[in-house]
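EI: anyone free to look at a 300-residue chain?
SC: sure, send it
EI:
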Amino acid sequence: MVLECSEPKGAMKQTQESGQGRLVCGAVWPMVFCLLVGCSSSLRRSLPDDKVLLGISLEDREHVVQRLGFTYGFGGHIARDSRGRWMAIPVTVDTKANARDVRLVVITATNVYTKPWSFGNRMGDDGEIAIWHDTNGLNYVRSGERLPASTRCIDASGEWVLVGARDRRPWLAKLETPFVVAAEPPESNTFRRIFAHGDVVHTFARRGWRKEEGPLRYLVYDFDRPGTQPLKEVALPWGRAAREMDPESGLAVVTGNQRAWALCWLMNVETGKRERIPSLLQYLIVRKEVAQKWIELTKR
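SC: here you go
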């Protein structure tokens, strides 16, 4: 079963419950039902700028892996490039997650192809490897520079990487120059995600996973402008983790700060408005043509 919200572009409806405003889409009751019973239905939602929010179920992911010929394999976490022009799934060719047996399945609007891969690697927007690690667990970036053992790549998006070290706060840098600090976010938060669009980097940061370790903070850096301070900083006390974000449409998927992790929200980062969506899915925001290719692959 697929849940589809077919509201006009960028539209949201507001209802009142127990005196508090809540933003919901037309399919809210099926979504709430999924949250309550734990179903694994997929979701497709049209967004502004010819983007689509895909809510991918485990069943759909494994069906695509099988359909592509990896009969005895299993798929890992699905990634995308910073503009949603491709999706990529690391897949084992047998039941053992051995680096020598991994392939990366890349899905574009017009093509599906594979390349040798290793779990933990990251592909850049140009389709080439951007971050990888050796057998000792040391990280390398696209320039070929090796990061010290005490340093790691926390996250990457577009041309940007978030680097962490044991003795200092994480910092944002270009992939080509990981030790040239562009900005050092103000707190030593241990959980972070970044989403880049050109030289604008959106950052979500939190001190930890526990409910009391909030709030989740949303910061925006524009490195086309002088200075290293964020242009915008917003506290999201109701949020725990950013799972996906598209800078072009300004929409983010954020897990709620409830103990059971039962709630997930689609939030407009400009207005702060949000609506509930199913939590038991992996979310990706991609271009419409890429979403159509994925939907074609999931057909039974």
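EI: Residues 2-298 form a domain with the Neuraminidase fold (CATH 2.120.10).
SC: 👍
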